[in-house]
Amino acid sequence: MGSATALNELIRRIGLNRQEIQQRCNLLNWQSSDAACLNAAADNMNTAQQTFTDRLYQHLEGFPGAAGVISDPVTQQRLKHSQQAYYQRLWRGPYNADYVDSRLRIGLIHQMAGIELKWYLAGYRLYLDEILAQLFDAHPNQALFASLLKAVFFDMTLAIDTYSAAQRKALEDSEARFARALRGANDGIWDWHLGHDRLYVSTRWAAMLGLDHDSLGESSASWFNRVHPEDLPGLRQAIEAHCNGRNAQLNHEYRMRSSTGDYLWVQARGVVETDASGQQRMAGSQSDISARKAIEEQLQHAARHDPLTGLGNRLRLDELLPQALQQLSHSGAREAALLFIDLDRFKLINDSLGHHCGDQVLIEISRRLAHCLRPGDHLCRFGGDEFVVLLTDLACAEDAEQVAQRMLDSLSLPLHLAGQTLVVSASIGITALQPSDASQDALQAADLALYQAKQAGKAQFARFSEALQVSAHYQLELESALGQALERDEFVLHYQPILRIEAQGTRFVGVEALLRWQRGSTLVPPLEFITSLEDSGQIIRVGDWVLSQACRQVRAWQLAGQPHLHCAVNLSSRQLLQENFVERLSEILRDSGLAASDLILEITESQLLEDSTATLITLRALATLGVRLALDDFGTGYSSLGYLKRFPLHILKVDRSFISGASQNAELTAISPAIIGLGQSLGLEVVAEGVERAEHLDFLRAQGCHMAQGYWFSRPLSAAELHQQFITPPDEPRPTCTSRASLEEPTEQ
Ligand code: C2E
Ligand code: CA
Ligand code: CA
C-alpha cells in the first residue's frame, strides 16, 4: 500500500465527521470571536514561535530516544520549518475541514516517524510556556501558571495512558479470545494479499503440515507448492470462482504434502475482500480433514466391495466398466473383454452342505479366479455365485478365451473342504468390448453368452455373437407372445399315427398327440417353445389343455369307428410334480370318456431323475389308475437298467436316432438291436420312432419289434387330416397303412 493511501485509510478510521468536530468545538466553547481574536494577534507571535522551536529541539536533544530522530541537522531544519508553519496556522486559521485534515496528517506522519506522544505533548507544553512568556511577561502569576501547565500536561499524559491502555486491553482480550477459539478449532489461519502475493499463515497452519512457521516463505508459493499436483488446478479454479463472485465462499478440499512427504487432506475456507484501493485480500482457515477422509474412504470401499470375498461388487463394476469403455476409444488402445461367470449347480452345494460351506466355496473360487488374472484385470462378485471379470489391454479378443479356459481348468480341480471333496464347475459368457458400447449392453451381451454356455451343457465358455443377439431377441418376442397363446386359442394338436407291425403290413392302433402353436400364419414346432413354457410355469396350464383335448379327440375317434385306438400324450416333469396331478388326470379321463387303459403318458429319463421319490409316487398312482407309462427317447439318456426297474413302465420308445441312423452307421446298426432286445427283456413293449424308409420297417420286423411310428407311415397330421385319412365309418374296412403317400406329400414343413 502506498503511504498516501495508508494515511487516507487511517484518517477514515479515526472517523471524525462534521458532527463530531462540531461537538468538540462546542465542548471547548469555541466561538467565532475566538478565531477573530487569534487571527488579530497572529503577527505578534512570530518571534515567540521562533524561540519556541529552538528551545524545543534543544530540550529534546537531552532525551536519548528523541535525540536520535532529530539528530540530522538537515532534517532538523526541515522539521523546525514545518513546525513554524504549523503554529502559524494555529493563529491564522482558517479553521475549516482542511485544517482538521492537515492536523491529522501531521500527527500521523509524526507517529510514523517514531515521535512518541509524550514528546508531542511536551512540545505543546513548551509552546504554551513560550507564548505565556510573550503575553504575560513579568506578570506576578506567570511562574505559577507555568507550573500549572506542567501539572496539567502531566495529567493529560496520564489520562491518555489510561484510555489507550483500556483500548489496548479490549483489543488484546478480543485477540486472545480469537486465538483461543482458533486453538480450540484446531484450524490453521491464512491471510493472503493477492496483489502483492504476500501470504501470512498461522503457526498452527504450518504445524498441521509438520512445518516450522518461521521457515515458510512469505509468498503463496509456500502454500501452492505443497498442494498435490492433481488437486492444484481444482484449488486454483475454486479460488478464482470465489474471487469472480461465482461462489459466495471459498470452500475446497485437497491434499497437501507434509514435512514427511506424505499427503494429508485439508479443507480451506475463506472469503475475499477488496480494500479501498481495489486490492484483493483473501483470508480464511485450513483444517486437517484426513480422519474424515479416511472414514469416507472406508465407507466408499465398503459400499463397493463384497465383504465375503473382498472383491469389488456390482457398484464397483459400474465404475470400472465405463472407464474401460472410455479408454478403448483412445487411439492405440488394445482390446478389452468382459467375462460373466456363473457357477453350475451352486444351489446344490448351498442346500446340501449349508451356507457356511457355500461361503467357503465362494471364497476359494474367487481365489482361484483371481489367480488366473493379470495385475490390470478386475474380478468382481456380481452377486450370489456370479462373478464378472474385466480384462483390459488384450493383444486380441481371443486372449479372453484363453483366460476363460484357464479359469475353467482351475475350477475343475477338486476342492477339499471340511473333510469333503467337492467338484465345482462354472459357465462363462464372453464378450469383446466395443468403445461404442454402453456398460449395460456389454453386461447384457456377456450374460447372453453365459446363457448360451449354460444351454450348451454348462462347464464351458461361449462367446457373444450377433446371431446370439438375434436369437435372443426372437426368443424374447416369442416368450411374450407365448404368454397369451392359450387365451387366444392359438395352440393346436397334431396327431401322428402309431402302428402295429404285423406279418403282413401294419395296423393303425394309436396316435401321439404333438403340440403346435399357430402363430399367425406360421405353425411353430414344440421344440421352439416347450422350454419357455416350462421355464415360465405355463406348461402346467398348457399341458392340462393338451391332455383334455387329446383325450376328447381320441375318444371321438373311438366312437367314430376306432374303438381300440389309444392316445399317447407327452408330459413335462413340472406336470408330474404337480401335487394334484393324478386327481386332475382322473377328472380329464372322466370328462372325455376315455378309458385309462387307452391313455399312454410319455416321459423322458431326465424327468425320472429330477425328483425321483416324488415322481415315483405319482407314477405308481397313475399306474394304479390303469394309465400306461412310456419312456420316451430311450437310449439317449444314461440311466442304468436297475434304476429304470424302479419305475412302473410299460413301454419303451426307442429314440429315432437308433432307427433312422441305423442303416448308415455301423455302430448304430450294432447297438439298435441291443436296445430293442433290452426293452423286450425287461418285459416292455417297444415302440420304434423315426421310421422313415421301407428298410427301417424291414429292420424292425426282423428284430421282432412290434410297434412303430414315423414319416414312412405318416407325418403328424391335424385332427381333420387324420380323421380323413385314418378314421373310417364302422361299416367300411379298416385301413392298413403300407403306403408312403404321406411322406411324399408332407403336411408339415
Ligand atoms: P417326441 O416326443 O420325441 O416326439 C416325436 C417327434 O419326432 C415329433 O416332433 C415328430 O414330429 C418327430 N418325428 C416323428 N416321426 C419322425 C420321423 O420319421 N423322422 C423325424 N426326423 N422326426 C419324426 P415334434 O412334433 O417337433 O415334437 C418334438 C418334441 O416336442 C417331442 O418329441 C416332445 O418331446 C415335445 N412335445 C411335443 N408335444 C408336446 C406336448 O404336448 N407336451 C410336452 N411336454 N412335450 C411335447
Ligand atoms: Ca413323445
Ligand atoms: Ca421321442
Number of strands: 22
- What CATH calls the topology of the largest domain is TIM Barrel
Structural class: alpha/beta
| Through-space gap between termini | 99 Å
Q: β content, as a range? A: 15-25%
Number of separate structural domains: 4
Low-pLDDT segments = 737-749
Protein name: Diguanylate cyclase DosC
InterPro entries: Biofilm_reg_signaling (IPR052155), EAL_dom (IPR001633), EAL_sf (IPR035919), GGDEF_dom (IPR000160), Globin-like_sf (IPR009050), Globin-sensor_dom (IPR044398), Globin/Proto (IPR012292), Nucleotide_cyclase (IPR029787)
Pfam family, one: GGDEF
Which key phrases capture this entry?
749 residues, Globin-like, Beta-Lactamase, Alpha-Beta Plaits, 8-stranded mixed β-barrel, 5-stranded antiparallel sheet, 53% helix, disordered C terminus, binds ligand C2E
Question: Your description of this structure?
Answer:
By secondary structure, this protein is of the alpha/beta class. It has 4 domains: 180 residues, Globins (Globin-like, Orthogonal Bundle); 107 residues, Beta-Lactamase; 161 residues, Alpha-Beta Plaits (2-Layer Sandwich), CATH 3.30.70; 246 residues, Alpha-Beta Barrel (TIM Barrel). Helices cover 53% and strands 18% of the residues. It is built from 31 helices and 22 strands. Strands 13-14-16-17-18-19-20-21 form an 8-stranded mixed beta barrel, surrounded by 5 helices. The chain has a 5-stranded antiparallel sheet with strand order 2-1-5-4-3, sandwiched between helices. Strands 7-8-6-11-12 form a 5-stranded mixed sheet, with helices on both faces. A hairpin with a 4-residue loop joins strand 1 and strand 2. The two termini are 99 Å apart. The C terminus is likely disordered. It binds ligand C2E and calcium ion (CA) (2 copies). The site of one calcium ion (CA) has 5 residues, from strand 18.
